[in-house]
Amino acid sequence: MGGLTGAAAPTEHSDARVDVAIVGAGIVGCLTARAVLDRLPGGSIAVVERDAVAGGASRRSAGLHFPRGASAPVRRMASFSESYYRTLKREDPQLPIHGLDTTVIAADARADRLAEHYLPGRLRRTDLPPPGPAGPVRLPGGTGAWQVTGGQYADVAALTQRLAARLRPVVRFLEGTRVRTVASRPGHVGLGLSSGATLTASKVLLAPGPWLADPAWRPWTAGLGLRVKKVVALHVERRPSPTEGAIVFEDEDAFLLPVHHRGHWLFSYTSAQWDVAPDAADHCVTPAELAEARSVLDRLAPELVPLCTTGRVFCDAYSPDRIPVVGPVDEFQNVIFAGAANGSGYRLAPAIAADAARLLCPTTVPRSHP
């Protein structure tokens, strides 16, 4: 995993041809580039990004990973991704991936479902309430706490940029470059770029995050049944101690995360605003969003409400069955879509990337060196 062998990346911005073009330089796009290089050593890859590396959803990601999935496919992806990140961190201990104690709070009546949704052997019932930003979190009657092994969080933007930096010697990155057109033909795909150049690739990966409605690929993504939902998280302005971990409120689909590298906590809750456009919002927390988030937090940890005056706002793509979508979208099966991770882009990115790489490079080429 993580081999970075390949042909030297060209530096010119004229028309070019590559084996694989990846549209989107978030965590999914960069991990897919790594996975393609592992399957196709010496192959030529270009990553096209409308902004900068990690400039979209990856920049705003909470970066929480916990070993959970409401369905068997998602549990498979969560298990694969957990192992992948563990290996990645072992190979480079300086990567901004940090182990994290995690506690799940849920109704006692849902204990059986809880055990089904988490990976086997990861839950242990505890009578101790977890420490939170303002003291131990209270356990209302009829609820219980479970300690979870395998949790971690990452500075997703910094991690993605580190991965891209390691890829640059062998992968061509076209930042600040928008894909205007995608033309699939037998054996190749042509990408018309905002720079005026044309990039031709044997296979193309679309990893656009919430930019599903971009005119260049909207005809293909429109039939996938995907929707874009707003994601709002409040910043709890209290510095976490080094020993404090994440608290997942299972029944509310919310969590408190100590963001140690930023010096505050994050409260993420489920927003019900659908069909938003990533470029339409100004990404500022509105009074209505503050009130909505505080109303949820008031039921869980009311002493934190006065500490929540700021936050982050963005959006993410969701699939109808809450399973990420990875598959061809054109008639020639040259264009692969990967995404709709349902708010779990970082958590499931390695598995999404591995599935996408298998479609982009169906046959693995043996390495020509030890």
Give a description of the structure.
The protein is of the alpha+beta class. It folds into two domains: 225 residues, FAD/NAD(P)-binding domain; 140 residues, D-Amino Acid Oxidase, Chain A, domain 2. It contains eight helices and 21 strands. Strands 1, 2, 11, 12, 13, 14, 20 and 21 form an eight-stranded mixed beta sheet that branches. Strand 12 and strand 13 form a beta hairpin. Helix 1 packs parallel to helix 5, helix 1 runs parallel beside helix 8 and helix 3 packs across helix 8. The N terminus is likely disordered.
Q: Main traits of this protein?
A:
370 residues; FAD/NAD(P)-binding domain; D-Amino Acid Oxidase, Chain A, domain 2; eight-stranded mixed sheet; 21 strands; 24% helix; globular; disordered N terminus
